[in-house]
From TrEMBL, chains A, B:
Tetrapyrrole methylase domain location: 32-225
Superkingdom of the source species: Bacteria
Keyword list, A-Z: Cobalamin biosynthesis, Methyltransferase, S-adenosyl-L-methionine, Transferase
GO biological process, one term: cobalamin biosynthetic process
Organism the protein comes from: Dehalogenimonas etheniformans
Pathway: Cofactor biosynthesis; adenosylcobalamin biosynthesis
Protein's recorded name: Tetrapyrrole methylase domain-containing protein
One Gene Ontology MF term: methyltransferase activity
UniProt xrefs under SUPFAM superfamilies: Tetrapyrrole methylase
Pfam families in the cross-refs: TP_methylase
Length: 255, 255
């Protein structure tokens, strides 16, 4: 499944004297949000690993690199293969992740263990939560960020589901804004249905941010009631600002 | 105090048919973290407002713009002057802020009121909290972010001080990482002294991130005890990761 470029295979190990090669876990939200630091690192990288969605974003910058493309069925194995290859050849490796790696819910320890034979750096980016907050005009200071993600086997993580639902309704009832990253296992429809069952007002305004920072990006203000029967893209960030008044004001300013 | 460029003063209002000119509140952490979207917006902007520190970061990109430089004694007045000028001439205006505007503690309403005659957009950036989290290798998911800032007169905001101190010690005792943005009114020495007075262990490791993302950037791991007598730069982010073990592991990987 991985489509690395064979013409790089015969390049001998680099002659760097550094005891360990470098590994970068780099956040990628979308090409408009790519920063100069990320571009510089990609320039000196030897090996790039990531899902097709993130590879596509930086494609023009990594034409001369060895690329390992992750897929849903074996993304961990592909990362391991790439890491082993980088270690063997003493090469620098970049793992692209589809959000700031320190914001998204993959445990930091996972990255630290994966790259234990490397000097590890994290490269932050504007996360989808920040883009959604910017679009809705809500501050992240009084906002709960909730990430739904599958369990190790790609199924519904029932513990996480329960924890996130409890945190979500508590925070909203306590006066915080809530920004939720949906997933295949927990769509914005599911989230809206749950909140309605917890007596949150049907007319509460929400901003649905579908496929943020991609060419297909779609931002729509709607009500919680309506979003319970709207089939949004699986990669959607849902913003539920606290005050309808603030929301109304912002609504008129949305591009 | 504002040094706008007089050669722009005689340019007639733009002929755009849009009913309102555009205003952008743009986060700027440092030149390595400037993204393409921010550069594109700066290109089409007419007027730029910001502190010298943020103006310097984008200086080469705004040579042909009218620039209003804010200073500590009258930054609100200078912003008002720039905004009035932009409205009068129907021009696009960019306010540079030294962190993601949706993360830092200026209320969103302040920006919305300031730019009520404009179509307002927020432009996020990697915040100093994300850079500090990346440097320390801690996830922001289980982290309390604390921002100390002066009151309207530039003095110590006693309410905020009390609130932040309570939140800080509670979160740390409950097992969260804490990342704190210090300020002139509340230095990292003050913060360390307070935490020591609350029985936090003197040997707790902390990462001091001075002048993050600037050429003078300095990252130092030290102990909470030692940081109580270390005179850090006023623009310092202090990271207090929860687990000493994780901390030790990360320490060896810091650049």
């Amino acid at each position: 499944m991985n489509t690395w470029k064979m013409d790089r295979m015969d390049i001998s190990p680099t002659s760097q004297v550094e005891p360990k090669p470098r590994a970068y876990v780099m956040g990628i939200t979308g090409s408009p949000y790519l920063c100069d630091k990320a571009k510089e690192i990609l320039k000196v990288a030897d090996i790039i690993v990531g899902w097709q969605a993130s590879i596509s974003i930086v494609e023009s910058l990594i034409l001369d690199k060895m690329i390992f493309i992750q897929d849903p069925t074996q993304y961990r194995e592909i990362l391991k293969t790439a890491t082993r290859y980088a270690k063997l050849h003493n090469q620098n490796i970049v793992l692209l992740v589809l959000d700031d790696p320190l914001v998204y819910s993959v445990p930091v320890q996972y990255f630290q263990e994966t790259f234990e034979d490397f000097t590890l750096d994290f490269v932050p980016c504007s996360s989808r939560f920040q883009l959604a907050a910017a679009a809705a005009g809500v501050s992240l200071e009084n906002t709960l960020m909730v990430v739904f993600s599958p369990d190790k086997n790609g199924g519904i993580d029932l513990d996480l589901l329960e924890t996130n639902r409890t945190r979500m309704i508590q925070a909203f009832n306590q006066g915080s804004n809530v920004i939720i990253s949906s997933d295949i296992e927990q769509s914005t429809e599911d989230i809206a249905e749950f909140l309605l069952s917890q007596k949150v007002d049907r007319t509460t305004q929400v901003l649905l941010c579908e496929e943020l920072a991609t060419p297909a990006e779609k931002l729509s203000w709607t009500t919680l009631g309506a979003s319970a029967s709207y089939n949004s893209h699986w990669n959607t960030i849902m913003v539920i600002p606290q005050k309808a008044s603030q929301n109304e004001k912002v609504k008129s300013q949305i591009r």
